[in-house]
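Run log // design_07
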């Protein structure tokens, strides 16, 4: 039996109940079936595990659900055992204290996160500058060869090749550092997502 068929039959069996009690019972079993489906059961298995619709309806009716239309008392919402309205009031009164602290911590964490990216950016600019300067120096060595002589041109060419090689070598830590930081960022977001899911559960 599907969830829809189960709830339809249960609603028919509970027709003698007040509308509010009937809706509460239907919502309860709807959520129970949904929870069982989330745990891995099929919809038919989840419904079958509840038992017979007639037995469930008889049990609900025997508990005195149809004795009147008086709605049940509303449950007061709480936050960690404290009334919700009081928790909101205390949070508002403490706003001048905790808001600057939270903002300061957030800015500090963000700055600490930006530092390695800034270092990688500086290394990248240095590597590109060295590589481009080396290429430009090598071209210049051939240009000034007739004017400055072979020795000066060779010295300039050697220095240019060294700068170019140093720039290329410097790109390796930049690439590996970027990959490592990107993976670390993705890992942190996955952890935060899993913590939020655990809290909701």
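design_07 sequence
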């Amino acid at each position: 039996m599907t969830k829809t068929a189960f709830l339809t039959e249960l609603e028919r069996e509970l027709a003698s109940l007040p509308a509010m009690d009937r809706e509460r019972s239907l919502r309860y079993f709807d959520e129970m079936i949904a929870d069982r489906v989330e745990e891995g059961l099929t919809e038919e298995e989840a419904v079958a595990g509840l038992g017979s619709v007639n037995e469930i309806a008889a049990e609900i009716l025997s508990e005195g659900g149809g004795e009147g239309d008086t709605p049940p008392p509303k449950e007061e919402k709480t936050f960690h055992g404290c009334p919700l309205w009081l928790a909101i009031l205390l949070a508002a009164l403490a706003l001048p204290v905790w808001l600057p602290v939270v903002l300061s911590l957030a800015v500090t964490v963000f700055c600490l996160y930006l530092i390695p990216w800034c270092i990688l950016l500086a290394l990248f600019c240095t590597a590109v500058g060295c590589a481009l300067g080396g290429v430009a120096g090598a071209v210049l060595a051939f240009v000034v060869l007739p004017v400055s002589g072979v020795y000066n041109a060779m010295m300039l060419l050697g220095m240019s090749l060294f700068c170019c090689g140093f720039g290329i070598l410097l790109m390796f830590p930049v690439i590996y550092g970027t990959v490592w930081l990107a993976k670390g960022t993705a890992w942190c977001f996955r952890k935060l997502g899993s913590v939020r899911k655990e809290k909701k559960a």
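The first strand starts at residue 78 and ends at 79.
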